[in-house]
Amino acid sequence: MDVYLPIANLAVNGLVIIALGGLTGLLSGMFGVGGGFLTTPLLIFYGIPPTVAAASAASQVTGASVSGVFAHSRRGGVDYQMGGMLVLGGIIGTGFGALLFRLLTALGQIDTVINVLYVLLLGGIGSFMARDSVREIRAQRTGIPLPARKRRHHPLVANLPWRWRFYRSGLYISPLAPLLLGMATGILTMLMGIGGGFMLVPAMLYILGMSASVVVGTSLFQIMFVTMATTMTHALTTRAVDLVLAVLLLLGSVTGAQVGANVALQVRPERLRLVLAAIVLIVAFRMALGLTYRPDAIYTVSPL
């Protein structure tokens, strides 16, 4: 079933795009993270231009995060005060990201920058997740439990001024910490089309020291608004959002997320994280290979 993508200016198999959306939705439901960090690389591998892939993936993440926010909100799993600061920072970061996106596009380097960022982020986070998962599996096999992690914020966060109480998260920290974290996520969302959850959730746990009971819901709350702002910014400035592509991805991700959630109930969480880490590292390696591989024909000539 061939479908023409007007912004990407190419025809694709619609069933393949829906399947890609279903795969990222499956991973989202299984691992509790947004599938945006895999959607963009998979679209690039399929032949979608990186700028269109990044802009369209952000709109898919918006739709996928809305239902998650409502689900977590019903059980009190969203810190709206903390989420508000993250959203404010994310919107500011989106503005900076838009300027950076246009600058890199004018320099002709945006595709390379998107690929390099994915290699660095996916490689780093995948290695971190794999290390923690292997340690937990070894501890289960040997019967020697790992030392309990103390929930505390990073020393740099403790030194920031103007502390507030974030009652739902159980924190007394400066609002500048979530503001800066939200700005970093907004810039990355604008450049890469990610929801930011795969980076934001660990940062909220290990840098801000938030309670695990509100981390996922608060992260989805921030992602929902920041990806909305990112999609609007792309639509008004770069004009790289392909609605046909986004709708096809969303159709697949909604179904895949439901299947993934059921699978997650039957597999131990540390093994799920190890599988996710392996997938992330494979994608990072493939993107790194694409940056270094020399094609057979360096130059091509096409008729006007």
UniProtKB/TrEMBL annotation:
> Which superkingdom heads the taxonomic lineage of this protein's source?
Bacteria
Which InterPro entries does the UniProt entry name for this protein?
TM_pro_TauE-like, TSUP/Inactive_protease-like
Q: Which UniProt keywords apply?
A: Cell membrane, Membrane, Transmembrane, Transmembrane helix
How is this protein situated with respect to the membrane?
Multi-pass membrane protein
Give a yes or no for keyword NAD in this entry: no
**Cellular component aspect of the GO annotation:** plasma membrane
Main localization, broad class: membrane
**Regions that span the bilayer:** 7-31, 43-71, 83-104, 110-130, 171-198, 204-228, 240-260, 272-289
Instruction: Tell me the Pfam families matching this sequence.
Output: TauE
Places the protein is found = Cell membrane; Membrane
- Give the family per the record: Belongs to the 4-toluene sulfonate uptake permease (TSUP) (TC 2.A.102) family.
Specify the protein name.
Answer: Probable membrane transporter protein
